[in-house]
Amino acid sequence: MTKRSGPTKCGHNYRKRSAARLYAVQALFQMEVSGQSSESIKEEFITYRFGEEIDNQEILEGDIDFFSILVDDAVNYQALIDQMTKRALVDKWPLSRIDPTIRSLFRAAGAELIRDQVPPKVIINEFIDIACAFFPSGQESKFVNGVLDHMAREVRPDDFTIVG
Questions:
Q1: Has residue 9 been placed in a domain?
Q2: C-alpha distance from residue 103 to each of 109, 118, 127, 129 (Å)
Q3: Into how many domains does the chain fold?
Q4: Which sign does the torsion angle of CA 121, 122, 126, 129 carry?
Q5: How many CB atoms lie within 10 A of CB 29?
């Protein structure tokens, strides 16, 4: 994982896109447990959550457009993302057994991997940092790393091809 400047806890830093990724995971989790629509969740997060304080650290305003894209893509491509996730899991470990926060993280990360605009390693590192924020023990971050690496290699294999 690359070292970043700024306040860290388990290596995370809340820049605008980083904050948007965190908020997307939280929004997807809230949608799953509450049954709210993506539009109402996005409105709530943009109005009330962006810029909130977590662990006595103010989070930057998130990139609203990026947040909206991640949430929309995670919803629109959920079946595809869930299939990619299932293929990355051990055969006897169904997606339904995954913690809902981690499942939401996989959906947000999968949505970003599908967009093909940010290098997969950057996406993986960003979402590992988010896993560390939610699960500071570090065990879940190793699990997230393995699953996201598998998903990234499936959806963007050319980014892992060694040239030379």
A1: no
A2: 10, 21, 12, 15
A3: 1
A4: positive
A5: 21
Cβ neighbours of residue 139 under 8 Å, at least 6 residues apart? none
Residue 7 covered by a domain: no
Q: Read off the pLDDT of residues 12-34 as tens digits, 9 standing for 90 and up.
A: 334 889 989 999 999 999 999 99
CA distance 72 to 77: 8
DSSP 91-155: TT--GGGS-HHHHHHHHHHHHHHHHT-S-HHHHHHHHHHHHHHH-TTSHHHHHHHHHHHHHHHHH
Q: pLDDT-based confidence at 4, cuts 50/70/90? A: very low
Report the alpha-carbon distance of residue 36 to residue 38 in Å, rounded.
7
What's the one-letter identity of residue 125? Answer: N
Residue partners of 77: CB distance under 8 A and separation at least 6: 110, 111, 114
47-95 pLDDT, tens digit each: 888 876 666 666 567 889 999 999 999 999 999 999 999 999 877 677 8
Whether 121 is covered by a domain: the verdict is yes
Task: Identify whether 3 is part of a domain.
Answer: no
Domain that holds residue 53: 16-160
Please check whether residue 120 is in contact with residue 150, taking contact to mean a CB–CB distance below 8 angstroms.
Answer: no
